Amino acid sequence: MQARPRIQLKGGNPVSKLNTAVNIAGVELKNPIVTASGTFGFGREFSEFFDLSQLGAVSVKGLTLKPKAGNPPPRVAESASGMLNSVGLQNPGVESFIKDELPFLRGFDVKIIANMAGNTVEDYVEMARILSDADVDMLEVNISCPNVKEGGVAFGVDERAVYEVTSRVKAVSKKPVIIKLSPNVTDIKKIAKAAESGGADALSLINTLLGMRIDIKTRRPILKNNTGGLSGPAVFPIAVRMVHDVYEAVKLPIIGMGGVARGEDAVELMMAGASAVAVGSAALVNPLAPIEIKRGLEKFMEDNGVASVSELTGSAKMW
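Predicted structure:
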């Protein structure tokens, strides 16, 4: 028997050469591991731990038209198996991203997803115009941030608003458009269908779930914003259920996320219907988490005779 060709992962054990490439709205990622926006900055800090070229894609910190200071501290609170944040989209603005951060990221062989957030539909449209002419591969429209008082999740919970934002961004965008969905809705399938009707090229989900912690000594919320978004392993089963619901409801590729911390989690989320998987909070605990999750996914493929990672998408069998 002829031995299969082998490759050597940086710092890891040899594994069989597998087909890990996935296609998201016409953009080929060399593997399905993406970094979740809001947890990875613009990659500079993480590049000190590993070569960003090992990732499939980087979704950058959420961008707004103008620089944004975010919410006042405290902005982070721990919770069992997760964390609450109310950062509030702190970022340098879209023009600074293009001038100061994008050239650095372009130094790596990785697809770049520009995540954008707005207070009005016009904000989203203007950023889509600007970013369409920038050297990014895809646009991710964040209509699901629970930590801003205007825009954000207010768009993501209304079907008509989702349709309007999606269709108007699509009308001006030269790049594939991903709509990032909020889990803070009654029926995420209706929201996903509204995005599909508006012309979305792909979906990403889930964003954080709205939560609160209270300091029992001061009787005040720990977060200065009072509420924040819950992420981490605590939300993983919700992400699996919602990804599966959306996979059944629409025909768009899905970037699944929400509490992914192990290679097995990535496998599970893909079986639920995701074509790619984003890693968020896990990377804040362990900067190497995206790479370790990628290796874990590859090991599962090798151990279980999965030649192409795309075979996993939607392969779960319901009772």
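Summary: The longest strand covers residues 111-116.
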